[in-house]
């Protein structure tokens, strides 16, 4: 150990070289300068840690096979480790890794979901080639909606078995619907399906759809003429698709 004398017993701002220190407790405000080695001599890195870290917090002992850096609280144990395989792992507790940063540059979510915490953010594919206006995948959603059913002429007396589901991927919505006409009454012209799960960005354009009537056996055509709907549904030959006891199925894909 080398001590640089600058007055007093040790002087002001003494310099210590090659000092071995046992257990250390740091309180208050402290600042370390230069490089620090724990369990090893300082290297060119600011902090070098060698050996293993163990803890018996809540009766759990950290795996001592690999060098570890950990945070230990009264409850669960969270830490990161660099096993011999070269992966950098994040552990939330004693059950295993929740994420791995692999030595082949892949990132693996072992447990749980990758949660996008801010609306409008997502996965950016701008590094890929292309001429698109956006390469940010910022939305995916699955859900249900309740189609509102009527006819352009007359009145449908009773409607039952109304089902709506949708999948939204980015700006594209795939909407699926089913309508059972119990009693058609005076309904005529075209069937209208309203209350779309999302308004379209552009009426007439950017949609495709089709469907089927189980009793008539006709294929169905659909038209979305306004951004908020409704969908106009007719038989493939342009005739009215409704009848008492008729069940209609359809899907529509459009842009929002």
Pick out its properties.
256 residues; mainly beta; disordered N terminus; five-stranded antiparallel β-sheet
What does this protein look like?
The structure is a single chain. The protein is an all-beta fold and 256 residues long. The protein folds into 2 domains: 32-111, no CATH class; 142-255. 0% of the residues lie in helices and 41% in strands. It is built from no helices and 20 strands. It has a 9-stranded antiparallel β-sheet with strand order 12-14-15-20-17-18-19-16-13, with no helix packed on it. A 5-stranded antiparallel β-sheet has the order 5-6-7-8-9, with no helix packed on it. Strands 1-2 form a two-stranded antiparallel ribbon. The chain is rod-shaped. The model is unreliable at 1-6 and 55-77 (pLDDT under 50).
How is the topology of this model organized?
Elements: E1 2-3, E2 16-17, E3 36-38, E4 47-49, E5 68-72, E6 77-81, E7 88-91, E8 97-101, E9 107-109, E10 123-124, E11 136-137, E12 140-144, E13 148-153, E14 158-169, E15 172-183, E16 188-194, E17 207-213, E18 219-224, E19 231-235, E20 246-255
Parallel strand pairs: 3-4
Antiparallel strand pairs: 1-2, 5-6, 6-7, 7-8, 8-9, 10-11, 12-14, 13-16, 14-15, 15-20, 16-19, 17-18, 17-20, 18-19
Short summary of the structure?
The protein is an all-beta fold and 256 residues long. It has two domains: 32-111, no CATH class; 142-255.
């Amino acid at each position: 150990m080398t001590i640089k004398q600058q007055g007093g017993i040790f002087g002001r701002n003494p310099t210590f070289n090659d000092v071995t220190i046992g257990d250390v407790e740091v309180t208050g405000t402290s600042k370390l300068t230069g490089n620090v080695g724990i369990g090893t001599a300082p290297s060119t890195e600011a902090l070098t840690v060698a050996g293993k870290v163990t803890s018996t917090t809540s009766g759990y002992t950290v795996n001592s096979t690999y060098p570890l850096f950990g945070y230990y609280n009264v409850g669960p144990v969270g830490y990161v480790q660099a096993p011999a395989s070269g992966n950098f792992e994040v552990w939330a507790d004693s059950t295993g890794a929740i994420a791995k940063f692999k030595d082949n540059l892949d990132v693996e979510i072992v447990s749980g979901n990758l949660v996008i915490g801010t609306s409008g953010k997502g996965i950016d594919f701008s590094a890929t080639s292309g001429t698109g206006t956006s390469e940010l995948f910022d939305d995916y959603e699955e859900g249900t909606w309740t189609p509102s059913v009527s006819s352009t002429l007359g009145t449908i007396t009773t409607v039952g078995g109304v089902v709506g589901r949708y999948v939204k991927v980015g700006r594209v919505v795939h909407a699926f619907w089913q309508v059972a006409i119990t009693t058609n009454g005076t309904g005529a012209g075209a069937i209208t399906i309203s209350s779309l799960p999302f308004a379209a960005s552009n009426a007439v354009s950017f949609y495709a759809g089709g469907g089927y009537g189980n009793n008539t056996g006709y294929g169905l055509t659909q038209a979305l003429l306004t951004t908020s709907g409704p969908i106009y549904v007719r038989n493939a030959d342009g005739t009215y698709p409704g009848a008492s006891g008729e069940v209609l199925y359809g899907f529509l894909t459009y842009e929002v």
